[in-house]
Please model this.
Amino acid sequence: MNRTKTLQIGNLIAKIPVIQGGMGVGISLSSLAGAVAKEGAIGIISTAQIGYREEDFDTNPLKANMRAIQKEVKKAREIAKGGIIGVNIMVATKQYSEYVKEAVRAGVDLIISGAGLPMELPKIVQEEIQKRKEEGWQLKRPNLVPIVSSKKAANLILKMWDKKAQVAPDAIVIEGPKAGGHLGFKPEELEHMEEMDYDEEIKKIIEVIKPYEQKYQHEIPVIVAGGILNREQMEHYMDMGASGVQVATPFVTTKECDADIRFKEAYINCKKEDIIIVKSPVGMPGRAINNAFQKRIQEEGKIPVGRCHSCISTCKQKEIPYCITEGLINAVKGDIEHALVFCGANAYLADKITTVKEVLSRYCEE
Model:
């Protein structure tokens, strides 16, 4: 395998400059993240309702999720055999700080955070490490990586981290309009995605970062995400100043992906016109496959919510069109007709079940 340059984030060095994007609920857990890390890229576990398989999830979702973070990180470490393991934690998560603290206690290598602006992330991490140090723990500080989609968001995070915590990010993920799941764009922008010169926005974000690299005397690598299919596309962004890419959708149809086979087959069977922009109960637009579940929402306007699992801080149960936790758990379990099936813009290109090794080779071979 002919490799490109490595990706360095803080003290971490990945032999392949690819981060596997975090996908919840349960799509990227220990099996996928561990396999990616074992091959020399960076494996990411999604913490979104990570404890959905725990026996007490319905009665105590927070406790179940905290326990599952520890379990999944440990299992991923065993698979990775020394590879880099991180977590993705959504800012919109209820009790966000508890998830961050649990990830620190689990000893993850990095925390990636989006679906909102992670303004308090450095402070939460610093306080948890200090608290546990006083109790005799020896915790390492994970590398902290915010997700942004605009120069404005990058500027806000850089300024606030500098002012409040006197730190700069260890890296920044720039998530473009072709990404899957929740998106940092307005619906009308996504409708005219092909007209958007997003490369210019990436260049602006890279320029915003430079003064903070100088101030803190360390590189802040940029990782570009959203619809990047191969080495040629990756190198396009590297030529612009990026250090690597984040890839999620291509990993769904691997043997190692943690989702049910029927979830993977939904990607293989979908057509380009089946991929739509949906309004998520989180309050952000998202990209998903148009299935029976989406058609029911379009026709009925609202699907009654069963049990609340305290997932999203912005959730107003009486107003939301459906429960996102129920929709995503149905997806990972393979109940596709009753599921929210998030995907990237290029999901329709999947035509078979493959492996993590094969996906990563697309970014490494000449």
About this structure: Residues 88 and 112 are 5 Å apart (CA to CA). The first strand starts at residue 7 and ends at 9.
